[in-house]
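INTERNAL AUDIT FORM
Audit reference: QA-55
Scope: verify that the stored structure record matches its stored sequence.
Auditor: D.O.
Record contents follow.
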Amino acid sequence: MSAMRRWLPITLVLAFSFPATAVSQEGETARGTAAAQETEAPQTVEDDRSALTDPAEADLDARAAEVAGGLRCPVCRNQSILESNADLSREMHRVVRERLAAGETPEEVEAYFVSRYGEWILLKPQARGINLVVYALPVIVLLLGFLLARNRLRKWARAGAVETSAGATGSGSIGVEDEEWLRDALRES
């Protein structure tokens, strides 16, 4: 039990320190680029005309949108490059489309962006290495919470059982005068 008390604060500090750094980075970037994103022009209709007339282009656009939906915008950081209106995300979306048109697989396109920007560019981190903490930490915290609650309830139940058995042996029983008073009170009511 004492080992669990030592590791619980460390686990909680680790659990709550990672999201705090990500939020602070997102907040800094979002403030600096909010004005730039508002002044950008929307995409023109000419970009999508080929997808309307050619089924192969529509398939390519759908695959590009699927890959782009899994890549984080370096400017916005809380949006995919598909959702973002930043110039850089549009350029990245164009690169995704060109690479898919050249015959690369979606995995190769993602690997290209990971090699340039690092693994944080992926909106869904891969479950390996240090990223296992992201997937395992919630399960570990829930398991530790369950074990802690179970141990507390067992102690509480044992303490109640000891008090009940002590009352049955007579050490906690009431005196003769109090017993007579209680019987009289019950008769009157």
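Auditor finding: record pair retrieved intact. The two ends are 50 Å apart (CA to CA).
Action required: none
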